[in-house]
Amino acid sequence: HMPRARTLTTIVAPQDPTAPQTPFPNDGILWFDNLFPLRVHKHDYRYLLVDTTATLERLDELVHKMAEVDVNVTKMIPKEKEGGAFVFFNSPSHDETIIADKILRYLSSRSETTWLNSQEIRSHLVEGKPFINDLSFYPSRRVRIDFVGGPRELDMETLYAVLRRYGKIKSMELLGSKDIPKHAIVEFKHFHGAVSSKNCVHGLVVNGTKLEFSYQEVLRTHALRDFFSKYSRFLVPLVLALMAALTYAIFDPIRVFFITNKLTHRFQFQLSSLI
To answer: pTM of the prediction?
Structure first.
């Protein structure tokens, strides 16, 4: 039994997404997330500990192991800030959807993690056209989806069916005119849902309409203030009662101490007369 020849993997930086690829009848792109720690703000310095080359080399070995068929990894594009990487692949004998399904079933049955990210590695077949860039942005749980061209005949049920596979959706809103929505704001429950949907669906044409994704910052509402305003009828008496109880708990022992000392002279010191 001769060892299988390995295909040389090329790691392409995000700013150079146009590296040539060898055309193949069954080629596709996979998105793997949870490879790196997700960086959601500029003060997260875990990325300094990331060894991108070693992580992608391990991923290359893992792809060949998971696919269980003849597959060639032609290019890998890491996206450290978003915690994942694109893997370009082809196969002379199997359709890309079959390979993607094999990898998905493998990851579903086993727990594969990286040392800086305790969440399990997940994989999705890219259905759109990835927008590879080095823009300064940070991932968010909320994405804006612009509807470009076509009749824009997209309803909430259709959009939900496209996005739900990537993670649980917290809220969804179609904006624009009543008959022709121009864009949608979708908030996922977890970051990986928003990140995976953006990287896998951006550029996909649904019902003649192209979907273009971008992150939108989740506005931090004053939850405590809103809660207090909503339930002030009950909270004001409760707060006053708690303040009275706290005042009693603090000052009553002091009052008892001074009264006891006054009656017993326990802690009263007097200078003795010198005879």
So the answer is: 0.69
